[in-house]
Design a protein that fits this description.
Length: about 230
């Protein structure tokens, strides 16, 4: 009948996952199942059941299981990329800027509800289907490389024969990506993101205690996050 609204397909159960939208609930459920049961062993039906929706309803948000995996993977790199972009205009020294990115990136890999970084190792992710994610990850890797070069450029002059790291080795980026394996093995410490940020500057040869940059880096991150919340 004209003018009559048709109710949407009801849920199977009341809301049972964290998230502000059904899409976020699907991602949370998939993140848990992919990292605890395995990607191959998890069906879209099982994900829908974990959310409390019918399987056809899940397809309103994601067409395939690969699409869900891609969204989870992309989130782990687009979030720190956005923070790097927001840090760009701030008047920060090179070590503080790199320290802040390490804190943010390592923090989300270490404290997210599910260990999503471990999904990078899935054989499925090595296929062309996930080329977009690999481009995003490469963009983040190059941001780390540029920030590492800026730190090296800001170092005081060194004597002849002094070892100087090559940013093209992507050492800092790879340090951060050790966290999913540490987390899977139950190793590490509660303040592991800060330890990674400290180690990043140590590795590049920054003199003194790298921890002196922590408070300024954290204030910059707090400001960036507050601005993002206010804009949303």
């Amino acid at each position: 009948m004209s003018g009559t609204s048709v109710p949407g397909r009801p849920r199977l159960a009341t809301r049972r996952r964290p998230g502000l939208t059904p899409r976020e609930e699907v991602l949370d459920a998939a993140g848990e199942l992919f990292t605890t049961r395995g990607y191959a062993a998890t069906s879209t039906r099982r994900i829908a059941e974990a959310v409390g929706m019918r399987q056809p309803s899940l397809y309103h948000h994601f067409r395939t299981k690969d699409d869900i995996l891609e969204a989870l993977l992309s989130g782990t790199v687009t979030a720190p990329l956005a923070i790097a972009d927001a840090l760009d205009p701030l008047p920060l020294t090179a070590p503080v800027r790199l320290y802040a990115l390490c804190l943010a990136d390592a923090g989300q890999l270490w404290t997210s509800p599910w260990n999503l970084g471990i999904l990078y190792l899935l054989p499925e992710v090595r296929t062309e289907r996930f080329a977009r994610f690999h481009r995003q990850r490469d963009a983040l890797r190059l941001r780390y490389r540029a920030l590492s070069q800026a730190v090296l450029d800001a170092l005081p002059p060194q004597g002849p024969g002094h070892y100087r790291p090559d940013p093209a080795d992507d050492t800092v980026f790879r340090l951060t990506e050790t966290l999913p394996n540490l987390r899977a093995d139950g190793q590490g410490f509660p303040d592991q993101p800060r330890r990674i940020a400290d180690l990043a500057l140590h590795t590049l040869g920054w003199p003194g205690d790298p921890g002196v940059h922590h408070d300024e880096a954290q204030r910059a991150l707090d400001g960036v996050r507050l601005a993002a919340e206010q804009a949303s």
